[in-house]
Amino acid sequence: MTVTYEVGDGLYVNVTNRCTNSCDFCVRSVADGTYGELWLEREPSKEEILSALTEALTKKNYKEIVFCGYGEPTIRLDDILFACKKLKENPQNPKIRINTNGHANLIFGKDVTPLLAGLIDCVSVSLNAPDAEEYCRVCHPQFGKEAFTGLLDFAAKAKEYVPSVMLSVVSDSIPDSDIEKCKRLANEYGITLKIREYIKNN
Ligand code: SF4
């Protein structure tokens, strides 16, 4: 079971295959074997997540820890925060980021962003589209159109508790004109927009 893996100088953490989206470009649907080994036969327990992280951190210095894909990490928010709380006991440990689709408040039916305070240093929310219609067309969210306003609301609320919050789009999967619209939208919310290349994980 692959719980942690490296991307550059980051230690990435894989806690679930599950997701509330079904994006056209998702590695879960286009996996060619490069990341195929990340598919979890079963989800690691919170203790296994912590153990895998602790073991990896004793072997190498990483710039950051990133809870990312295969699936949507905040589906297991309680277990992630359990591990983060333990990791934050050692100030030498790297900063912690969550790459998310931003659906957490919809998943839990309440504002969970206060739970991130002091445990998560960065939240990167996948925007993927300039409006709800396009988001639904590309990401097929189980929450429907509400998912788009929900992720923007999540990002805005997270800013109160997390030092760094950004929205992101994948440059290869969105036309330039839509990227400009996303920039304007991010500006309206006072959130940085990160334009990234497709790296086959969330
Ligand atoms: S790209 Fe991310 S948000 Fe989209 S289906 Fe895959 S894991 Fe979910």
Description:
- The protein is α/β, with parallel strands linked by helices and 202 residues long.
- The protein has one domain: TIM Barrel, CATH 3.20.20.
- Helices cover 34% and strands 17% of the residues.
- It has a 7-stranded mixed beta sheet with strand order 1-2-3-4-5-6-7.
- It is globular.
- The mean pLDDT is 92.
- Bound molecules: iron/sulfur cluster (SF4).
- Iron/sulfur cluster binds next to loops.
Keywords:
single chain; 202 residues; alpha/beta; TIM Barrel; 7-stranded mixed beta sheet; 7 helices; globular; binds iron/sulfur cluster
Strand order in the sheet with the most strands = 1-2-3-4-5-6-7
Bound molecules: iron/sulfur cluster
What count of domains describes the coordinates? Answer: 1
Per CATH, the class reads Alpha Beta
General shape: globular
Q: How would you spell out the order of helices and strands?
A: EEHHEHEHEHHEHE
Using only CA atoms, what is the Rg? 16 Å
- Percent in helix: 25-40%
Second-tier CATH architecture? Alpha-Beta Barrel
| Total count of strands | 7
Task: Briefly note the CATH topology name.
Answer: TIM Barrel
The helix/strand class is alpha/beta
| Ends distance | 19 Å
Main beta sheet: 7 strands, mixed
CATH homologous superfamily descriptor: Aldolase class I
Which blocks of ≥5 consecutive residues have pLDDT under 50?
none
